[in-house]
Design goal:
Elements (H helix, E strand, L loop, with lengths): L3 E12 L4 E2 L2 E2 L3 E11 L4 E7 L2 H13 L8 H12 L16 H24 L3 H4 L7 E3 L2 E4 L19 H15 L4 E4 L5 H14 L5 E4 L6 H10 L4 E5 L5 H10 L4 E3 L9 H7 L4 E4 L1 H4 L1 H14 L3 E4 L6 H12 L27 E2 L2 E3 L12 H14 L6 H8 L11
Parallel strand pairs: 7-8, 8-9, 9-10, 10-11, 11-12, 12-13
Antiparallel strand pairs: 1-4, 2-3, 4-5, 6-15, 14-15
Helix pairs in contact: 1-2, 1-3, 2-3, 5-6, 7-8
Bound molecules: D-glucarate (GKR) and magnesium ion.
Length: 419
């Protein structure tokens, strides 16, 4: 009988370029937590999640409470997580992923362990995680190039290997590099950084440079309803979807009514409780799932079924992440019949990882689903140690793109709508 005997939560920091978004700019390091669950039969289950201090504290508390848990008892994990956290730990947010309720905070913690338990289940049974999720419907999972406006390097440091991208030429050059290296067959541009007309020009330059590649733009709710509608008309026939042009389901519905292309979201529909209102208002045509905050891999599969029921498209959202998360995203996407678009990933922006390299390779923009037991990835203990050391010395304890931006632009104000 398999039981959890040891829980190790290791915060890590990995180098991150100065990627610009609606609320500021990425700091020199991105933070993640790495979860290792050991069992009495010698198995190790892996998970990866946010690395912000509040989340780490919740992981540690729940980690202590799951000693003795049977890795197959996911409902029990849910109950222990809710009981251990109670309502007392408040809530916080990571990245631009909408409003986070106390229930949502509990789900983020649950999801962090759920992946590690599924990894254990797979190793115990000798089956890949995708088999536990219903089996693969695709052996290769397509991802999208994820472009960012960016500075040449972090202020005060040498320019990085990615180069500057602050205008349409820079954005097209970045797309070329990313497609040459990874073979992506779809492109997303992170917007909400410059005036919408400039961002439309960048998208039109991408259209000219890559006439057959589906395009997306995501200003993270930086625009008013009027601006959003104007952009949808300028980009008619150019975008496959427009992501979170404006905040709230009500405002998104006003835009959706006038928009020639579907609207997608990872900000105004971020939990099951948001779906009835979004469907009633017809706020969005596409939901971007993310197992890190939708309550894990199994809940994300249920989300896919709901999207199919309500005629909504489905794709996947990403924040800065490492290989364990990419493995989890790939197993999930491989096992979801209703998947409408190539997935987001920040993968090309990282130069360090905690997993043994070689398993997750991009060929023609897609990652082959690992067929070995569990998630199919292994920890490189030296790399984990290095990235933990980096966490201890980098001085960051939570993501704060706005404060970092204000070090260089003191009057930077991200309050939406900016345009
Ligand atoms: O990494 O700057 C970023 C992104 O803006 C991220 O925080 C968002 O959550 O990628 C995300 C999105 O699609 O909104
Ligand atoms: Mg988004």
């Amino acid at each position: 009988m398999s039981r959890i005997t040891h829980v190790t939560i290791t915060p890590v920091a990995f180098r991150d370029p100065p990627l610009l978004n609606a609320v500021g700019v990425h700091e020199p390091y991105a933070l993640r937590s790495i979860i290792q669950l050991r069992t009495d039969d010698g198995l190790v289950g892996l998970g990866e999640s946010y690395g912000d201090a509040g989340h780490l504290e919740r992981l540690r508390r729940v980690g202590d409470a799951i000693i003795g848990l049977d890795p197959f008892h996911l409902h029990r994990l849910r109950e222990v997580t809710a009981r251990t956290l109670g309502g007392a730990l408040g809530n916080d947010t990571h990245g631009l992923t909408g409003h986070i309720s106390v229930a949502g905070t509990s789900l983020r913690t649950f999801a962090s362990f759920e992946v590690a338990l599924l990894d254990l289940q797979g190793k115990y049974l000798g089956r890949p995680v995708s088999d536990l999720l219903g089996g693969v419907v695709r052996y290769r999972v397509p991802y999208s190039a994820y472009l960012f406006y960016k500075w040449a390097g972090h202020p005060g440091l040498d320019p990085d290997e990615y180069g500057e991208a602050l205008d349409p030429e820079g954005v097209v050059a970045q797309a070329r590099w990313m497609i040459e290296r990874y073979g992506f067959g779809a492109i997303k541009l992170k917007g909400g950084v410059f005036h919408p007309d400039d961002e439309v020009d960048a998208v039109l330059a991408l259209r000219d440079a890559f006439p057959d590649v589906p395009l997306r733009l995501d200003p993270n709710a930086a625009w008013s309803v009027e601006t959003s509608i104007r952009v949808t008309h300028r980009l008619e026939g150019v975008l496959e979807y427009l992501e979170d042009p404006t905040a709230t389901r009500e405002a998104m519905a006003l835009v959706a009514r006038e928009s020639p292309m579907p609207l997608a979201t990872n900000m105004c529909v971020v939990g099951f409780e948001d779906i009835p209102d979004a469907v009633r208002r017809a706020s969005v045509g596409v939901i971007l799932s993310d197992h890190h905050y939708w309550g894990g891999l199994r809940a994300s599969g249920e989300l896919a079924t709901l999207c199919e029921t309500f005629g909504l498209g489905l794709s996947m959202h990403s924040n800065s992440h490492l290989g364990i998360s990419l493995a989890a995203m790939t197993h999930l996407a491989a096992s979801v019949p209703h998947l409408s678009y190539a997935l987001d990933t920040h993968w090309p922006w990282k130069s360090e990882d905690v997993i043994v390299p070689g398993v997750l390779e991009f060929v023609d923009g897609a990652v082959a689903v690992p067929r070995t037991p569990g998630l199919g990835v292994e920890i490189d203990e030296d790399a984990l140690g290095r990235l933990h050391e980096q966490y201890l010395t980098c001085g960051l304890t939570q993501r704060d793109d706005t404060s970092y931006m204000r070090r260089f632009t003191p009057d930077f104000d991200p309050t939406p709508p900016r345009w």
